[in-house]
From TrEMBL:
<comment type="similarity">
    <text>Belongs to the peptidase S49 family.</text>
</comment>
<dbReference type="GO" id="GO:0016020">
    <property type="term" value="C:membrane"/>
</dbReference>
<keyword id="KW-0378">Hydrolase</keyword>
<keyword id="KW-0720">Serine protease</keyword>
<dbReference type="InterPro" id="IPR002142">
    <property type="entry name" value="Peptidase_S49"/>
</dbReference>
<keyword id="KW-0472">Membrane</keyword>
<protein>
    <submittedName>
        <fullName>Signal peptide peptidase SppA</fullName>
    </submittedName>
</protein>
<feature type="active site" description="Proton donor/acceptor">
    <location>
        <position position="196"/>
    </location>
</feature>
<dbReference type="InterPro" id="IPR029045">
    <property type="entry name" value="ClpP/crotonase-like_dom_sf"/>
</dbReference>
<dbReference type="InterPro" id="IPR047217">
    <property type="entry name" value="S49_SppA_67K_type_N"/>
</dbReference>
<dbReference type="GO" id="GO:0008236">
    <property type="term" value="F:serine-type peptidase activity"/>
</dbReference>
<feature type="domain" description="Peptidase S49">
    <location>
        <begin position="375"/>
        <end position="525"/>
    </location>
</feature>
<feature type="active site" description="Nucleophile">
    <location>
        <position position="390"/>
    </location>
</feature>
<dbReference type="InterPro" id="IPR047272">
    <property type="entry name" value="S49_SppA_C"/>
</dbReference>
<feature type="domain" description="Peptidase S49">
    <location>
        <begin position="128"/>
        <end position="276"/>
    </location>
</feature>
<keyword id="KW-0645">Protease</keyword>
<dbReference type="GO" id="GO:0006465">
    <property type="term" value="P:signal peptide processing"/>
</dbReference>
Length: 593
């Protein structure tokens, strides 16, 4: 273990020193220009079009600043800034009533977002269209997710030589058992529930029948929602869309056009369409407004007077323990923010915006308790994004009302524990041996990466069983159903928001706007009576960059995302190691294709 820690932290220190020097130079060069432009108001020209470029990683809440170094390639930090879902929704609402914005150009090929987030944007675009303004989409290629969002547009344009990926939704998992066998690494797994399959990659070479059953169930549910919305937008029946997907007809652009899915055209032809739509000549220049610029423009919606607020508290990422980092949730950080909102008399209700597959069971329980205390003072509404599963559901079940998108992945109510026995790996593969001296028979219990006795295993299994009983009992109380009924929905089983609403795990279907409306109704606030404020505040580009240079978690993430093969391998193994212990986590952070 000590050798592993030495290798990991030596590499992290080297990266940290390099990043510190790099960031120091960048800060000196950029901080002046950033400060001078941060308070400037962007002037939107008459007859403008809002351009939404969604080919970037999507977060729930992101800075509205541009990354001034986005074009600089480097292996140590991401030069691609994230786009914030909350910022997109805000911009669309503003643009809907802004006389200077005549329509939207949707630039989307391969969105790095979940179906729930895309559904939220899609709903906002539908609302935007009701203002009488247009939404047009253009791309050289569309992924399945991209077409789902683009299909809401009045016109969907594809390059004649491009590609439309339309063949239904699938999920692919990776399994490490054979690799562990070769490396002589023994996973020690403890779980409760037939469907608690998060441990399967370590103990199986394929999916269990139960895992296949639940996975097929929830991706069919998501696919039904997606196809239904495309059907309504494009006037194509769901059976016809099924035939198109099964026969891969849409991969031929000309066939896709004949089927009525889109129109073919080159950029200049699409540009002419935009100009015609806003009634300017072909030789005149389009005024395309970027999202970040528009968010710095004067808000056309009058500001609400007074101090009454509905607070949105964003909880995004894996639940890692007491202190969070980039893309993770720490219970200490969350509790600190929640207590401030609970004690703030101007905050009349709290909306928990959850996008998490779960993680540490202890941290989940700590946050659940604080949510219960907060809702004794003011209404607390849970709004689920892509994921609110296992530990993510643990947080939500403490709220007064739970709102989810039909495509949200939730449930996974269960607990498991895992450790890796690395004794033989270190001894036989690396030539490293360990020894210890103890005062009592089990003094070394859980302090080593070694084997456990049957007695020690029974202790852990009993703790997992107790954790499961606690989770299900609290969930049953929160959902006002019997423990027996709750357990029939638990066992680690994953549900979509649509399924969860039917079985009682979720109250309402909808997005963040619906959760805010419920919060307003619960706190007896009328439209125009309150402001909406988002917490914690999104970090600026330079704050994020500085954190990357000083945070070990951020450094490890950058190495894992780099193109250095051995670095990826080391930090992927470290990620697995960090998931040791007692966890309330869904089966993998899955990517739906």
């Amino acid at each position: 273990m000590y050798m592993w820690q030495f290798v990991k932290y030596t590499l992290a220190t080297i990266v940290g020193m390099f990043l510190f020097l790099l960031v120091s130079i960048i800060l000196l060069v950029g901080v002046g220009s950033a400060m001078s432009s941060s308070d400037s108001v962007y002037e939107v020209k008459e007859n403008s079009i809002l351009k939404l470029d969604l080919n970037r990683p999507m977060a729930e809440n992101a800075s509205d600043e541009d990354n001034p170094f986005a074009e600089i390639p480097n292996p140590f930090f991401s030069s691609t800034e994230k786009v914030g879902l909350i910022q997109i929704i805000s911009a669309l609402e503003r643009a809907r009533v802004d006389d200077k914005i005549k329509g939207i150009y949707l630039d989307i090929s391969f969105p790095m977002a979940g179906y729930a987030q895309l559904s939220e944007i899609r709903d906002a675009l539908e609302k935007f269209k009701k203002s009488g303004k247009f939404v047009y989409a253009y791309s050289n290629s569309y992924s399945e997710k991209a077409y789902y969002l683009a299909s809401v547009a009045n016109q969907v344009y594809l390059n004649p030589s491009g590609l439309l990926d339309f063949n239904g939704i699938s999920v692919q998992y990776m399994f490490y058992k054979k690799a562990f066998d070769k490396l002589e690494i023994e996973p020690l797994v403890f779980r409760v529930g037939t469907y608690k399959s998060a441990v399967e990659p370590f103990i199986r070479e394929d999916m269990s029948p139960e895992n296949k059953e639940q996975t097929l169930s929830f991706i069919r549910s998501i696919n039904h929602v997606v196809f239904n919305k495309i059907s309504l937008s494009k006037g194509l029946s769901i059976p016809k869309l099924d035939r198109i997907a099964d026969s891969l007809q849409a991969m031929n652009p000309q066939k896709a056009e004949k089927l009525g899915m889109l129109k073919l055209g080159y950029w200049d032809q699409f540009e002419s369409l935009l100009k015609k739509s806003i009634k300017i000549g072909d030789k005149e220049k389009l005024s395309l407004v970027k999202l970040t610029d528009y968010l710095h423009a004067k808000n056309p919606i009058p500001e609400v007077e007074g101090t009454k607020k509905i607070a949105i508290l964003v909880a995004e990422g894996e639940i890692v323990g007491t202190r969070g980092g980039e893309g993770s949730i720490g219970s200490d950080d969350f509790v600190k923010e929640l207590r401030k909102l609970r004690d703030n008399s101007s905050v009349k209700a709290i909306v928990l915006r959850i996008d998490s597959p779960g993680g540490s069971s202890l941290a989940s329980d700590i946050m659940w308790r604080e949510i219960l205390l907060a809702k004794k003072v003011k209404p607390v509404i849970a709004s689920m994004s892509n994921y609110a599963a296992s530990g993510g559901y643990y947080m939500a079940m403490g709220a007064d009302v739970i709102v989810a998108q039909p495509t949200t992945i939730t449930g996974s109510i269960g607990i498991f524990a895992q450790w890796l026995n690395l004794d033989n790996f270190f001894k036989n593969k690396l030539g490293i041996t360990q020894d210890h001296v103890s005062t009592h028979e089990h003094s070394h219990f859980l302090n080593s990466a070694g084997q456990l006795t049957d007695f020690e295993k029974s202790i852990i299994q009993n703790m997992v069983n107790k954790g499961y009983e606690s989770f299900t009992t609290k969930a049953a109380e929160g959902r006002k159903m019997s423990v027996e009924k709750l357990k029939s929905l638990a066992g680690g089983r994953v549900w979509t928001g649509e399924q969860a609403q039917k079985n009682g795990l979720v109250d309402e279907l909808g997005g963040l706007d619906k959760a805010i409306a419920i919060a307003a109704q619960k706190s007896k606030l009328k439209d125009g009576d309150y402001k909406v404020a988002v917490y914690p505040k999104a970090k600026s580009f330079f704050d994020t960059l500085l954190e990357s240079a000083t945070s070990s978690e951020s450094m490890e993430l950058r190495w894992a995302q780099s193109n250095i093969p051995w670095a990826k391998s080391i930090f992927e193994l470290d990620r697995i190691k960090k998931r040791e212990g007692f966890l309330a986590m869904m089966p993998y952070m899955m990517e739906l294709d």
